Each structure stands twice: as structure tokens, then as C-alpha cells.
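assembly run, all chains below
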Amino acid sequence: MGSRVMAVEGVTKVFEEGRQRIEVLKGITLEVAAGELVALEGPSGSGKTTLLSIVGCILSPSAGSLEIAGTRVRRSDEASLRETRRRSIGFVFQQYNLFPALGALENVEYSLNVRGVRGRAARDEALRVLERVGLGDRLHFLPRDLSGGQKQRVAIARALAGSPPLLLADEPTANLDTAVGAQVLDLFRQLAKSEGKGLLVVTHDPQVRKVADRVVGIRDGRLVEPGERAAEAA
Amino acid sequence: MVSLARRNLFHDRLRFVVTVAGVAFAVTLVLVQVGLFLGLLDKATVTIRNADAEVWVTSRNTPNVDFAHTFPETNVLRARSVPGVARADNLIVAFMNIQLPSGATEGALVYALEDFRRWNLPWRVSAGQPADLKRGYALLMDRSAELRYGRFAVGEYREIQGRRFRIAGTTEDAASFTTTPIVFMDYRTAQELQEQLRGSTNYILVKLAPGADAGAVVAQLRRRLPYNDVFTREEWARRSRDYWVQSTGLGMSMGVTVFLGVLVGIVIVAQTLYTSAVEHIKEFGTVKAIGGSNLDIYRILGEQAVIAAVIGFALGAALSYAARPAMAGLHLNVLISPAFTGVVFVGTVAMCLGAALFSFRRVAGIDPALVFRA
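ok done. output:
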């Protein structure tokens, strides 16, 4: 494995609703290295999406530290969080979250525009990553004209565009059938290995376990040791 | 650069059509209504602007050119004696009754001068000559009168104040603010028709000598005619216009119309942009998640508002300009100047951007974490 692209240490997250105080994450420490695919498993309500949101600089942790691509992220500075998202993180969502009015190429190009890459450079990079995910022949298809697997490939291309060192995926195979899901996971695996990306995949899908370098469990806001998970599985 | 704003706008075609139609409706309403109003106001001063007189002497407190009062006609002699006055003549402007062939009686606004040609009145003669007015009981009748009097032809006769007049010719564009048709006749003939006009007049038209100081001449005229008002052409036109705008509530009514037009535009644009923003909320969440800021989303909404404004304005302005010939056929003058069109364009863009502010508030609070919700 390469150098670490993401590290959280002692991260807690507390939500307060009126008088109620809900501690969703309780001192999480986790690292993802370049070229590593880490699967994060856990039941609903275990805190995995909250953790993904914190790692993705969408939520600020209540306590603890976060480091992305070697830079410590200031947790309460919205501009700093946004800049880290823009520069260092690619997202793949369960629902794809493509822009319905834009074709595949434009979906990727637009995300580059948002990240500050414009004109010819954005177009060339968008073409490159779409070719990379095998959609070179679907460049101008609108999302409604693409299959679920193709949509997810566009979403992966969008996440890859601009070469962020860290990719975060939220249940990327949940809406895909087994065969297509396997193809997407294979693609993830290749990306981690050949492009040196760090991948953190939140999932319920047992297929992910097969391709992941490491599987991390989360229960009630705490990471669970591999031994504990094995015992649970038994 | 990919424009998500443009692509989303054209992607939701029906909503786009509704938005543009709303803007176009508001623009048409404002342009046509204000154009009609300005056209009417134009009529309120049409004779003042066309008469070759730099200074008008009126009776005291005459509110506008149509509602004239009398004063001694010999005052003109004092006016002529003022240095800097090239010439001065009496002008009668009086409402009189005209008997129609149908037996009905209508009103006519009579303009009477000794010598019309000296004063460029009437300014557009389409048949006959002003000189014909000296030949017996003759008149020149404006073509716009057909709307009120029915069709007429040169050589026909009409009765005014019970006396038979030959229609010696016709004029164009001479209609008053009240839409009462203007009829031109000889000064002495007009005095014969109404008792109170004998020995009296309504206005003195003053032509300045070349190089004369208008201010000095007006001051002199005011001193020599202390029981009259003296106005420059511009002052008199403004006074006549202001009377109709302020004293009749027309200005207020026009203001309400413009306000309603703008309100309709704002409501339609705000409503469609807002529902569009709500429907695209997850997309905006995605924009934020991939590193976009609220400003990026405001730009999307702002661009959509401006596009709707520009296309809606173009459509509304085209409709308004296209309606002018048809309105002119109904003798309705829709006066739309390029400057006013420019003002409406700026107002339309401001209106649409203002409407987009409602959506700004909605998207400002988008939590990018919503991208993780199924």
C-alpha cells in the first residue's frame, strides 16, 4: 500500500435535538492508504453515512481530527471543507446523482467546471475518464437513456475527474444487479490499484468484501474489530 | 463551460414556456399600457408641439390647452409691442356642438386663427387648403373624427352651433386628449358662433424674433399682461400634460397598471423558478457536495432568471411593437420609445432577478449531506 490519503483520529459526532443529545460516532480512528480499497460495513443507524459525510468534508466532526491527502482539515471552516471536497475527494452516490439535463460528457465536464477546471482542459479530462470507465461510446447520452450500470460508471467517471486522491462511495452497488454490481466493483478495484486512489466504500453488499483490501465494521458509532465481526458472522 | 442553468431551463420545456409567457405577458402589459398612456399624453400636447409658437399667452389658471377661458382679444396688441416678438396672433380653442347626419349631436374642439399657415396649424393637411377657410362657412375636419362622426367627405356639409359648414378639407393627427375631434375654422367665423367669443380670444400665440432672449420676452409679456399667464412652449406642454396625469388620477391608474404587470411577472417567474429550484434540490446538493458553493447555485438561478427575462422581454416587446399598427387602425396611438423600451428591459431583468431571490433563500440552506439520502 502507498502513503495514507485519509486519516481520521478520535472522531466523534454529536447531534443535539432539543434536550436530546445523540452521539452518533464515538471516537473513530481510521486510515485509508493510496491504492487501498476499504469496505465500511454496518447496519442501518450504525453511523457509517455520518462517518462518510465527515470523511467527505460535508459534515464537521464534534471532536477529533481529519486529514485528507496530507492536509489537516479545519473542521469548522466551511470554505476549507469545500476546498478539500473540490480538490481531493470524488464522490459516488447510491442514487448516482447525475444531472438529468446533461449528457454523460457534460455531467463530468460540469463537475470539473465546479472544481475550477474550464474549457478544453475540462473537456479533455472528461473524455479521458469516460474512456477509462468504458463509456467512450455514450458520451452524449442523457442519464435517462443509460442503464443503471452505465449511470454508475458516469458517476465514477465524475468522481475520478480531476484525479482526486480519495474516492468515497455510498452503497455504489445497491441499485445494480449482481453482474453489473460485480463489474462496478471490479472497476473500483482497478482504479485503486492502477491509479493509486484510496477508496472508502460504504456498503451492505457481500460482494464488496471479496474485492476489498480491508473490511471495517461499524456498530453503534464504534469501529468493530475484525474478530468481533467474525464472531458476529458465525 | 457547461451551463447547468441553461440546460435545466430548456430541459423543463413546459415550465420554461410558462416562465417566458409570464414575463412576455408582463412586458406586453407594461409596454402597451404605458405606450397607450404616453400616446394619450402626446395628444394632450399635440397642438402645442406643432404650432410654430415659442410662447403661449393664456387666461389666468388655464389648466390645459383644451380647457381654455376667454380674455380680451385686444391683449394681442400689447403682446405685439413687446421687443423680441416677431409676431403674435389670437387663437380660439373652444368646444362646440356639431350636428351629425344621423341627427345626433357630438362635440368638436374648434381651433380658429386668422391665418393658419403662419402658425403651422394644422400641421398635416390631407385634402384642401387652410386658405379655403376664408371662403364662407368652411372647416377642415380631422380624419380621426370618423370614429365619432361617421364617414365624411370633402364637399359635404355639417352643422356647427346651428350653422351649416362645408367640409373644405381634411387633416391628420389632430385629435385632443379627450378624443374630441379637432375642427379648424376661421377666427371671425368662430367668434360668430359663440356669444362669449365676441371680442374675446383664448390664447395668444407668440413667435420670437430671431436671436430674441425667450426669458426676457416672457418676462416682458408677463409685465404687460398682468391678468394673463405666459408660458414658454415647454412649460405650457408640461402644464397640459401634468393636468391629465395628476388631476384626473390617470397617472395613478397607470402606476397601478404597471405595478400589476410587474407583480404578475414577479409572481409567475418567482413561482416557476422556486418550484424548479425545489425539484432540483438534490442536484444543487450534488453541486455543493462536489465542491460548489451557494454562489455557484445562485449563479445557476440568476442565469435562469436572466435568460427568462431576455427571451420573455424579446417576445413581449415584439408583440407590443406588432400590436401598434392594429391599434393605430383603431386610432389608438401606442407610443413606445426606444428609451422606454430600454427602461422596461432593465426593469424586466431586475424583476426576474428579484423573483429569483425567493429561490436563493430556499437553496441557501441546502445541506449537501442530502446527497447520501436515498
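The longest strand of chain A covers residues 4-17.

The CA atoms of residues 6 and 68 of chain A lie 5 Å apart.

not gonna interpret more than that til we talk
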